[in-house]
């Protein structure tokens, strides 16, 4: 009955195509709520903006920016902002949809949104980065706000960029709206524990999955793709629990060390010059990363990284999706057939949005919690969500991903049904 979307042509393994196939797989478990499922297959609102800035050399450069609000049935839109040369409307749509599923899966009172600018920020000066951030914020200012849609950091964005976004929105609206973004610096209404929250959530869900598999974390070998905010923090926490980080890949290349990489030395070097500048491991071709002998694989870079071929050759028994959408649907099937357990992105990396929620609540109440309180609450929310999803997976004999979608989609579509269709 519904017309196809005209502005996107998803392929099987493209981010939006991957998302649609994940939704299709859950339909048999939705019962009567299935009549609302089309709601999930199109964004509520998608804004494309022109972002012109004057560069340091006097040229006027134009960039394309996006903010997509996928679904707001359960609350305001929530989701990060990505600065990357490959960002497209389709990618942002998929990322916004995964936020809808994620916030529902951990039962936060939010919908899903996402934003981005098609730009390589590494090629901008600090002055240009501030200008592009402020102009973009001003352009999307007509649809974001503390009660409507709350951005946060994602790939290549950080606390400083959130501070500029908060300031720009506040200047345009005539107040100080700390609750308009999360992931802010601490003295601007940020929350303790936010920077490490996503990596911590990957660790919490991974520790529980390993326990249920009977895998001892002490001595477990871990390969991590993407060594930024999510990958490096998750690696640190697993190493503290006794695991060995045997392979790390970032945009500069891949390093391996079967005895375990020394993270205390690696992390500052990787932050500055990339992992291949580190001398405590062997540099290998990027493809070799997927062959590395390991027990746990943590994709924490970009979408579409675990292809069918890579799923076939990984030696991991457990995959923890730190990144959003790292596994294409065909690879998902191969991993399931091979008995590899996948903790899906929409639960595994939900620690970031959970502490973003804590930050937002603290901003509204102007009362700030200590870090122990944050981490205890984060642990509890992630464990409750994971246990419920695990029970659903056991009950229906389905993968953790389909179980997560079943739990999340039921919450979203129930809210949709109870709100009713306006007019
Ligand atoms: P980041 O910018 O801090 O780090 C990204 C890392 O990926 C860097 O190490 C970079 O070198 C690496 N990378 C980029 N392109 C690569 C390539 N082609 N091959 C290998 N490595 C590559 O970003 P982040 O915040 O750590 O986000 C990583 C992933 O986690 C993304 O999928 C993001 O959407 C997801 N995520 C982030 C958060 C968060 O709170 N930051 C929350 C949930 C999910």
CATH class category name of the domain at 197-348: Alpha Beta
Structural class: alpha/beta
Number of helical stretches of at least 4 residues: 13
CATH architecture of the domain at 197-348: 3-Layer(aba) Sandwich
- Work out the radius of gyration: 21 Å
From the spread of the alpha carbons, the general shape counts as globular
Q: Give the ligands present.
A: nicotinamide-adenine-dinucleotide
Percent in helix: 40-55%
Question: What this model shows, in words?
Answer:
The protein is of the alpha/beta class. Among the domains are: 43-175, Rossmann fold (3-Layer(aba) Sandwich), CATH 3.40.50; 197-348, NAD(P)-binding Rossmann-like Domain (Rossmann fold, 3-Layer(aba) Sandwich). Helix content is 43%, strand content 17%. It contains 13 helices and twelve strands. The strands form two sheets. Strands 9-8-7-6-10-11-12 form a seven-stranded mixed sheet, sandwiched between helices. Strand 3, helix 2 and strand 4 form a beta-alpha-beta unit. Helix 5 packs parallel to helix 12 and helix 12 packs across helix 13. The chain is globular. The mean pLDDT is 97. Nicotinamide-adenine-dinucleotide (NAD) binds at residues 153-156, 198, 225-231, 249-251, 300-302, 322-324, 349, 352.
Task: Please outline the helices and strands.
Blueprint: H1 15-26, E1 45-54, E2 60-71, E3 77-84, H2 89-105, E4 112-118, H3 126-140, E5 149-153, H4 159-173, H5 194-213, E6 221-225, H6 229-240, E7 244-250, E8 253-256, H7 263-273, E9 282-284, E10 296-299, H8 308-313, E11 318-320, H9 329-337, E12 341-343, H10 345-348, H11 351-365, H12 371-396, H13 400-419
Parallel strand pairs: 3-4, 3-5, 6-7, 6-10, 10-11, 11-12
Antiparallel strand pairs: 1-2, 2-4, 7-8, 8-9
Helix pairs in contact: 1-2, 1-13, 2-13, 3-4, 5-6, 5-11, 5-12, 11-12, 12-13
């Amino acid at each position: 009955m519904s017309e196809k979307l005209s502005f996107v042509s998803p392929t099987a393994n493209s981010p939006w195509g991957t998302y649609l196939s994940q939704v299709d797989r859950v339909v048999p478990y939705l019962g009567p709520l299935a009549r609302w499922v089309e709601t999930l297959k199109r964004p509520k609102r998608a804004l494309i903006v022109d972002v012109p800035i004057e560069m340091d050399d006097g040229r006027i450069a134009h960039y394309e920016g996006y903010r997509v609000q996928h679904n707001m049935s359960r609350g305001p839109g929530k989701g990060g902002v990505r600065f990357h040369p490959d960002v497209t409307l389709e990618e942002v749509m998929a990322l916004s949809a995964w936020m809808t599923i994620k916030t529902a899966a951990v039962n936060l009172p939010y919908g899903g949104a996402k934003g981005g600018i098609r730009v390589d920020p590494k090629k901008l000066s600090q002055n240009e980065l501030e200008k592009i951030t402020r102009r973009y914020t001003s352009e999307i200012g007509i649809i974001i706000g503390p009660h409507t849609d709350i951005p946060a950091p994602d790939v290549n964005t950080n606390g400083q960029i959130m501070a500029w976004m908060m300031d720009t929105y506040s200047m345009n609206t005539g107040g100080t709206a700390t609750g308009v973004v999360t992931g802010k610096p601490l003295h601007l209404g940020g929350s303790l524990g936010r920077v490490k929250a996503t990596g911590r959530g990957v660790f919490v869900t991974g520790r529980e999955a390993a326990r249920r598999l009977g895998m001892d974390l002490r001595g477990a070998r871990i390969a991590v793709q993407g060594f930024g905010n999510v990958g490096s923090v998750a690696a640190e926490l697993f190493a503290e629990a006794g695991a060995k980080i045997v392979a790390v890949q970032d945009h500069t290349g891949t390093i391996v060390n079967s005895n375990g990489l020394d993270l205390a030395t690696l992390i500052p070097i990787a932050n500055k010059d990339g992992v291949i500048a580190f001398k405590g491991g062997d540099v290998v071709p990027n493809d070799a990363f997927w062959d590395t002998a390991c027990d746990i694989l943590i994709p924490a870079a970009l979408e579409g990284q675990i292809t069918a071929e890579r799923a076939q050759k990984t030696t991991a028994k457990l995959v923890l999706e730190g990144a959003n959408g790292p596994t294409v649907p065909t690879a998902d099937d191969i991993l399931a057939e091979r008995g590899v357990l996948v903790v899906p992105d929409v639960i595994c990396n939900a620690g970031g949005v959970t502490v973003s929620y804590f930050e937002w609540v603290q901003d509204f109440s102007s009362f700030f919690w200590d870090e122990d309180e944050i981490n205890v609450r984060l642990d509890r929310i992630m464990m409750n969500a994971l246990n419920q999803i695990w029970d659903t997976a056991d009950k229906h004999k389905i993968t953790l991903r389909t179980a997560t979608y079943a739990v999340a989609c039921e919450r979203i579509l129930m809210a949709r049904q109870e709100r009713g269709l306006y007019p």
